[in-house]
Predict the 3D structure of the following.
Amino acid sequence: MKKLIISASLMAFGIFNAQETPETDAPKVSFSAYAEIFYSYDFNQPENHIRQPFLYTYNRHNEFNLNLGLVKANYSSENIRANLALMAGTYAQDNLSAEQDALKLINEANIGFKISKTKNIWIDAGIMPSHIGWESAIGKDNMTLTRSIAAENSPYFETGAKISYTSDNGKLFLSGLVLNGWQRIARVEGNQTLAFGHQITYKFSDNFSLNSSSFIGNDKPTDDKKMRYFHDLYANFNLGEKWSAIAGFDAGAEQNAKGSEKYNLWYSPNLLLSYAVNAQTKIGGRVEYYNDEKGVIIGTSTPNGFQTFGYSLNVDHEIHKNILWRTEARGFSSKDAIFMKDNMPESTNFFITTSLSAWF
């Protein structure tokens, strides 16, 4: 028994230290963690401390809170890869509120395997980060502190299977996806239709890349089936050594009734710009517009629906190589009075957010 225990211990030690092995095909197991604490002050001062219903991150007023705490294990070898990540925080609470209790803490749970000996072609299945959008749930990876309205109202995550191809020179990435729905782990009750998507990314140079992603499917019970078609297009730019930018445009259409030939439309153009003051400090800005007049994604019960212009300015400072302090001022201006202040509708909203994130 003692020999068996010693052998098992040596095997485990070998696996967890495989990343130090010089052989390129040796399996690697790595662990990482991320945490982001934030404070946001909304000048409309909501009494229940819950901010706008169309925001799903940093959505608390006048309180310190955890936006996202994340621990992740990753396994990779020449032909197999897998990820398991668990999370907590207001991001998990707000974005996975429709999921079953046992699933609400899962950020990632996926397995992939390579299907070609000569080409970089993979099949992955499980709970994965979304293939849509220029922003992710990991705050430090984004150009601005808070997420755009477009990112908040398109999928952060998805569940399904995908096949992907990366060219030998790394410039072209292609994928096709079969999904459970629009930001879903569990399927909508009564929904018997799978959804589909694609992603194409091309890196023209170190300074310019272009991404196209889509979603096609019905995210409602089959008895109330309404087809949704959505496309996300964005470009990344490096404008010299200090400037970088993202230009994005989202557009979607959904049937206004089952079997109808008429569609309700929504769209959102975005422009983000970042300037590196020095190696530790950056300044970022954003202008955005979101038009959802018919309330497909964001309902308002007002005559003109959700037609909102947004702007923000943030300052980021890297305290240490793995600690980032960010502060952002952001405002909204809407065509209708969709914001509440002192129990009265307002057409504008202004708030300031600061966050401290750390990772290893």
About this structure: The helical segments are 2-16, 90-95, 149-152. The chain has three helices and 18 strands. The CA atoms of residues 23 and 250 lie 44 Å apart.
